[in-house]
Design brief:
This protein is of the alpha+beta class and 130 residues long. The chain contains 4 helices and 3 strands, in the order αβββααα. It has a 3-stranded antiparallel beta sheet. Strand 1 and strand 2 form a beta hairpin. The longest helix has 27 residues.
């Protein structure tokens, strides 16, 4: 860092840490509102899931009326699997390159990992003390 003073370096790091905190907050909001849908092959069932993969809606078309119980069960599970796969892709896209993303359980649940948030806040506080 030739030509950069310590104060400039610290100021730049503080800005970067703040930007990461803001990115984490945006990610948390995007995940909280994320939805994905999947439809069965014969288009009898469409399932919607939230970021954690939990079912938020199920829609049956008139095609479902002609299915046996076993066929309907299979159609629901197929649509659910497709919705969860789509959500996994959405979560992966949203978290690509985000520091702290390895804590997948929190991310999929729609929360920025507490350890990441705490570490960034400690980093900013420590720099403010210098």
């Amino acid at each position: 860092m030739a030509g950069t003073t310590t104060d400039e370096w610290v100021a730049r790091l503080q800005v970067e840490a703040q930007e990461r905190l803001e990115a984490a907050a945006r990610l948390e909001q995007e995940l909280a509102g994320a939805r994905a849908t999947g439809t069965s092959t014969e288009r009898s069932v469409t399932v919607t899931v939230g970021a954690s993969g939990v079912v938020t809606d199920v829609v049956f078309t008139s095609v479902a009326e002609r299915l046996s119980a076993d066929q309907l069960r299979a159609a629901v599970l197929e649509a659910l699997g497709r919705a969860q796969l789509a959500m996994g892709e959405t979560v992966a896209r949203l978290t690509d390159g985000i520091a702290g993303a390895p804590d997948v359980r929190d991310l999929i649940a729609g929360r920025v990992p507490e350890s990441t948030r705490d570490a960034l806040q400690r980093e900013i506080a420590a720099r403010d003390e210098r």
